[in-house]
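Tutorial handout. Part one gives the primary structure; part two gives the three-dimensional structure as tokens.
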Amino acid sequence: MNTSPNVNRQILQHTIRFCITLLSLYAFSQPLSAQAPAPYAKAVETLSALIDHEVKDKALPAVSIALVDDQRVVWSKGFGFRDAAGKIPADANTVYRVGSVSKLFTDVAVMQLVEKGKLDLDSPVSHYLPDFKPVLKPEYKPITLRMLMSHRSGLIREPPVGNYFDPTEPGLAKTVASMNGIPVVFPPGEREKYSNAGVGVVGYVLQVTQKEQYEKYVKRVVLDPLGMNASSFLPTDAVKKNLADAVMWTYFGREFPAPTFELGTSPAGCMYSTVLDLAKFQSALFAGGKGVLKPETIQKMFTPQYAPAGAKRGFGIGFAVGETDGHRQIGHNGAIYGFATNFAALPDDKLGVVVVCSRDVANAVMNRIAEYGLKLMLATKAGKPLPKIETSEPLPAEQAKALAGKYRDGEFFIDLSESAGRLSFTTGRGGYQLQLRKAGPDLIVDDVQGFGTKLIREGDKLKGPTRTFTKVLPVTAPPPEPPANWKGLIGEYGWDHNTLYIYERNGRLHALIEWTEIDPLAEESENVFAFPTDRGMYQGEKLVFTRDATGRATKVVAASVTFLRRKIDGENGETFRVKATKPIADLRRAALAATPPKEMGTFKTPDLVDLATVPGLHFDIRYATDNNFMSTPFYTTAKAYFQRPAAEALKQVLAKLKPRGLGLVIYDSYRPWYVTKMFWDGTQEKYHNFVADPSKGSRHNRGCAVDLGLCDLATGKPVPVVSGYDEFSDRAYPDYPGGTSRQRWYRDLLRRTMEEEGFTVYEAEWWHFDFRDWKHYPILNRTFEDLAAGKR
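Part two.
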């Protein structure tokens, strides 16, 4: 079809105007991202530098942030990548699970009904939920919505069903019903006890009284009016499309993808959102609740409850209330599998920060970023110099080793432990294991779980904020065995995604719960222990063990949650076994026909020594028998060969162990490459961190790795440590915290002695040590028969 020039020109003009209109609409509807307007440009530059540093230093996969000044998002940006493959950059539209920030939206929905006179904060919650019947003593006050929303109900932290550990997604009704018949931990109204179960009850009140599914109701009356279109309490397709992949981590080094199931306590922690949507909520708060609540209601929510008049800190209705540099601060943290959030605002200054990341319990980092962001914004608005950020640097490895040990101040003590050059500390009161780094001449906590506490070094003393600890002489003898009654309780309980560890430390039974919280337990009877009453997530709650006829625990009800004992092959001294993915004959045939990877560079000439020539060594060459993880012989000869310098270093290790009556038992050393390929091809992918990738070769293939353990010098019997040899479980990790003090003492003695002679332990196996020169030797595929015949 022919078109005149004038028509073409008109079409072009209309197209240009349309594009300009779209761009204008986009500019006014979207916050600025990479570039912040004056006067915040310098503040943003400074804050970005901190976030860049923390992303790299703390291995944060994705971080998103928004800065809010009243009704404007003055800056928003993403750092890192939202996908596990590292291909999709995170941005301000990345969706995260925001954990307990969810509670604020539940509470806003309740306060809307309070404004309308449909709910009463101080009426017994049983008026709305007649079937909700936790056990209350006659003298106790009835539980109210105000108590539930300010964490003063005295209820358990987690419900028996639908709790943080429960992957069955039972729904809100079954979750709340599971609390019936459970006694409150503390008298309602008397003391603060954080309770996800309690806020679950609050959400259920909404569902029952409004006759609408909680998640749909809150979206309709809170999220939609605020324009939070990217947010939901349900994992919709739209939410999942932009959801960040999140990471879990452990103290002993294992990391894995975060689980994605929905909690039964959805009102307490199941919201999905973006920093831009949460910024809209902050702007609404700064506008006196515009669109959702009245200004006077917002102020009530910002007021500490059950506190003296004028109190500046505590829980308001939903909001945590505090101060930053004398300015009133409100907000909430959020933590749910793999995600950490900080929602922080200065309501009187109308300034706010929303920051969230995709690494589990990295709340200390999010808090630090949020607090610094607020201080930068305050300084900018006041025309004052921007505050400087405090930094730290890793300790030199030798300094970390020298500082390791126990430090005591009377009955109080701290343990400093070194691993792979990192120095960590835990206290006798439990809490968390935190990394210490260098801040000038002193030590500072700088970790995903904490920042800022300093320890000043004064000779053999460490001076903390309130106490001075003196280093005590190292214990040269192994700790005693724990009481016989505890042995049947020590072990792992629960799920793969969230395991409860019961172990002995410093003469007390401990629990490691939710991967990071360490709690010393008080023994009340043979099978009943108590969490601390004055601290921790589960303060005041109990652990009740059930044993079988042998005295071995089969389960523990910890804080009203049932954890079944985990079955771990090898836990009772038997050899760990796996079922080969293919017939062994097929694996062997394919491995012998394959070729090792080619390497570039110049290597040392191999000089493999038969370790049988080293006096004092004992041998248990499992791969020459069927007593190994694949239940088949891989070697035709029970031999162990090692590069000569590494063998000489082993002699020095033996010399240091001999005065203790200890020797070494060798399980394996040089391993032909074809055997490595059989291991890899024959095991399931979930076990591949315990076997080497043949495409890269193994340090065993280079004759520079050895598998060994301690043994009694007189009898040759192995000294028990936390796990057995070749046990493919968490217990194999060199920093695994479980077991007993005695087992860990022997494991650590072996590691320390080997490291002194130039060996490094493999991150997933306490028995595997690599000699320092391993990179200088080639990958070898010689059989033991070739070596015995002197073939090169």
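Part three, for discussion. Confidence is low (pLDDT under 50) at residues 1-34. The longest strand covers residues 327-336.
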